[in-house]
Write a structure and sequence with these properties.
This protein has a single domain, classed as P-loop containing nucleotide triphosphate hydrolases (Rossmann fold), CATH 3.40.50.300. It contains 7 helices and 9 strands, in the order βαβααβαβαβαββββα. The protein has helices spanning about 5-15, 30-50, 55, 60-70, 90-110, 125-130, 180-220, and strands at about 5, 20-25, 60, 75-80, 110-115, 135-140, 145-155, 170, 175-180. The protein has a 7-stranded mixed beta sheet with strand order 3-4-5-2-6-7-9. The chain has a two-stranded parallel ribbon with strand order 1-8.
Amino acid sequence: MVKRAILIEYIFNKSKCYTITSLIQGETQKGKSTSAWKINDILSRRRFGEPWDWTKYCARSLEEFVDIFDKSENRFIVYEEASKDINVATWYDLMNKLFNILLQTQAYKHNSVMIVMPQSLGISKRQRRFINLGMEVVKKIDTEKLKATLLKPTIYKRTYWKLDEDDLRYVFLPMTYIKYTEEDLAKSREYTQWLIDTLKADVMADIKRQLKKIKKNKRIAEGKIDMPKVEKPIKIRW
């Protein structure tokens, strides 16, 4: 029997008993972070009777994610580091570490994790098996009558570690609207600005590290400083 699924109801009901890992993807400025904030705010208000506190439950780095996940139980956590522009090798390493953490802790933490990223192509087939729900932001709507993001939800089919067999019978509508009030938009702007300020600080710190490295390499090339010595491995004779 096929069951019709409503996006937020599905996440809310499943999160009562299981760890849910969902993914929001979409191109820049389409409303990924706004959608993540709104969904988690609704879920937090329904579960705990309070708005979602992004200062406590939004991670912007793997280290921060580990810290938040370790201190939390039955909470809604968003991982926004995935939106950064990073190289392919770093990306795969980052996602491997993230999914290993989820796999090792999901049995007893019961946190619901939402990953925000530009596109899911960087996630391997193995990692996709640990994502329960995918959401693609199709477009952002901003008219006098309707302010919303249009999402395309998908339940990922997995070959092992199924959330439960019942998942396979759920079917979403092809498209789902997440609607916003003016108050919602004001609050979501606070959230996205907080993310932007943080990412800007991280980017500037990274640029400074790169400039420092370039200057050091230039001085080495000019002979102004010696190249760092590389110690030879000690050979042990048996």
